[in-house]
Each structure stands twice: as C-alpha cells, then as structure tokens.
C-alpha cells in the first residue's frame, strides 16, 4: 500500500518534538515493535499517532500541547503559518505528502486567515488525534475481517 511511515530515526525525532526528550533505546524498540506491521520498513504514521495519543493522554495534555505548539512556532509569534507547519512536519515526518500537511493546516485554520492560533492547534491535537485513532482502529478492523474471510 501507499502508506506513510517513520523510520527509526524519524521516530526518535518525532518523540523529541512531541515530548521534549530523546527516547531511550528500549523505548524506541518498544515503539518500533508496536508500530510496525508486516512488510513495512517503519512505524505507520497512523500507528504512531495512536501510540502518541495514548502517551499524551497519560500526561498533562494542556502542557504537552503547549510544548508542541512552541516547537512548531519557531518564530515565537504565538501563531503558526503554513511555513511553520510545513517545516515542523518535514522534521517530524519527512515522507508525509505535502497535500496531507496542507489538509491538516486547512483543518486547523478554522477561520481561514492563514494563521493557526494555540486554541485552533489545541483543537486539532485533541480532536485530530482522536479522529486519527478511531479511523485507524476502523481500518484495522476492516483489514482483520478481510484477512479472516480470505482464509
């Protein structure tokens, strides 16, 4: 399939960006084991979002969201422009298609002014991850049922 995935190195960078620390070798191993599927060279982006969503909900979500926002807001403007978004995603998920990044930006930019406020960003993080997780689970269920019927 045409999946987006994170290599081991991408995964470590993404954890640094999201949580502000470099994951240990054992944590990286666990994430790689839990996030990869057969014949895929890395962690699927959907699996990563699901795993990180669980990790984030176990921590203070507001503070984590604020940290991520600050990491994206490299110019310290208090809002994100498309370029900020693109460069952040390029560091976190370099193989992610640009159209996916644009869709995410449009989704986050609720009033279409070309800026994403912290509030908009917070909505995307809380609702976006939930949507990604639920759609991933649905796909997993569909795949599982397809696999069962093909036996």
From TrEMBL:
InterPro entries linked: EF-hand-dom_pair, EF_Hand_1_Ca_BS, EF_hand_dom, Myosin_RLC
SUPFAM superfamilies cross-referenced by the UniProt entry: EF-hand
MF terms (GO), sorted A to Z: calcium ion binding
Pfam family, one: EF-hand_7
Domain of life from the UniProt record: Eukaryota
Species of the source: Sinocyclocheilus anshuiensis
Keywords: Calcium, Metal-binding, Repeat
Gene3D superfamilies attached to this UniProt entry: EF-hand (1.10.238.10)
Name this polypeptide is given: EF-hand calcium-binding domain-containing protein 11-like
PANTHER family: MYOSIN REGULATORY LIGHT CHAIN 2
Keyword Cytoplasm among UniProt keywords: no
Every EF-hand domain range: 60-95, 96-131
CDD domains per record: EFh
